[in-house]
Design goal:
- This protein is an alpha/beta fold and about 350 residues long.
- The chain is built from 12 helices and 14 strands.
- It has helices at about 15-25, 40-45, 55-60, 80-90, 105-110, 125-130, 135-140, 160-175, 265-270, 305-315, 330-345, 350-360, and strands at about 5-10, 25-30, 50, 65-70, 95, 115-120, 140-150, 180-185, 205-210, 220-225, 230-240, 240-245, 250-255, 260.
- An 8-stranded mixed sheet has the order 8-9-10-7-11-12-13-14. It has a 6-stranded parallel sheet with strand order 3-2-1-4-5-6, sandwiched between helices.
- The longest helix is centred in the last third of the chain and has 17 residues, at about 330-345.
């Protein structure tokens, strides 16, 4: 059983306990990003883990093979690069929910890390996205891409959702000419609108964005790290019809509305009870005593635990194909252009952000 050191927030303890159990990981050392709350929950979830206050120092000599990051070390995630440097030097696998590098200005540093750093879970690298590869190859030119990604805060920050979505867009359409984005921060009410964070590591709340390209393409996204239940999906439109891909599977619909291809398993089962648009029909359920609605079972195996555990397992498996390289400079510039747009209130250019980052 591989031993791991982990840096998490309190709200991530249950998630990573489940992931560690599924992936056969023993959490040997654990640092809490919000340790001022006290460590009473630590012993409940990881009774054999050694509490650590200086995570970076502990990694210099810890007898572990894996490092897990649910949150980036440092008040603003500034220690993430140093942690990645150390993991690369010691030959440790660093598996992180949050993007590392976390800024376009830090991309050059990533060249030294090789394959030591793995960002999870990325939809582009998901098994079912790969399974849709043949359908994508036969689909022809893509006109528009629409992405929805919703999760709880424990499942990763809004910055993580944004990086994941921008990676998909860049993989399918390349870098856009401009991005017009808006962020609604936690705590926003009528008359009070906190400014979005100025960095990917601290971004939180809800984000919408429209992406404009030089060619006949367009993309949009709606993202949140305050939405509760996990969902992540992308819809592609073109002259050949529509392709929908999410963590449960994919479906190809021709211009006449006929499903001509779909993945086996959960997506097929779900389609039987769906309306013609493919959306699951809603049903009301009586609340249990205490006012809470009963939890719905995720029979498709596509909840946050399922998706994250599958991604971590692939990252740990030497037989699993390595994911395609990421153009961090382009993707992070897209992310930062969206953040800048949300702060300025106007469309921003990823190419301009990228040039400034390279010149710094």
């Amino acid at each position: 059983m591989p031993a791991a050191s982990a840096h998490l927030r309190h709200d991530q303890l249950a998630l990573f306990r489940a992931v560690a159990d599924r992936c056969g990981l023993e959490i040997a050392h654990l640092s809490l990003a919000d340790d001022s709350r006290g460590g009473t929950e630590l012993s409940d979830h990881f009774p054999r883990a050694k509490p650590v206050t200086d995570f970076r120092h502990e990694l210099t000599s810890a007898n572990v093979q894996v490092v897990l990051l649910g949150a980036l070390p440092g008040a603003k995630g500034e220690e993430a690069g140093a942690i990645a440097d150390l993991c690369a030097q010691r030959g440790l696998r660093l598996i992180t929910l949050e993007p590392i590098p976390a800024s376009a200005t830090d991309v050059r540093r990533a060249e030294l890390w090789g394959t030591a750093v793995r960002i999870v879970p990325l939809l582009r690298d998901a098994t079912l996205f790969a399974a849709a590869g043949e359908a994508l190859a036969d689909f022809g030119p893509i006109r528009t891409v629409s992405i929805a990604s919703r999760a709880a805060r424990a499942d990763g920050s809004l910055g993580a959702r944004l990086f994941d979505a921008m990676l998909i867009v860049h993989s399918l359409l390349g870098q856009p000419e401009s991005i017009d984005a808006s962020v609604i921060c936690p705590g926003s009410v009528a008359g009070v609108h906190p400014a979005p964070a100025d960095s990917l590591a601290l971004l939180s709340g809800d984000l919408t964005a429209n992406l404009r390209f030089a060619g006949p393409h367009a993309a949009s996204m709606s993202l949140s790290d305050r939405a509760g239940r996990w969902f992540r999906g992308v819809t592609l439109l073109g002259d050949a019809g529509c392709i929908r891909i999410d963590d449960a599977g994919f479906e190809v619909i021709d211009p006449a509305g006929t499903t001509i291809d779909r993945s086996p398993g959960p997506s097929g089962a779900r389609a039987k009870g769906a309306d013609p648009t493919g959306e699951k029909k809603s049903s009301r359920r009586k609340a249990e005593p205490g006012g809470a609605a009963p939890a719905e079972k995720n029979s498709g195996g596509t909840g946050a635990i399922d998706v994250l555990a599958a991604a971590v397992a692939r990252a740990l498996d030497d037989r699993s194909p390595r994911p395609a390289p990421i153009d961090f400079s382009a993707v992070l510039s897209m992310c930062e252009a969206a953040i800048l747009s949300a702060r300025t209130g106007q469309a921003e250019s990823p190419a301009t952000v990228q040039r400034m980052a390279m010149a710094s």
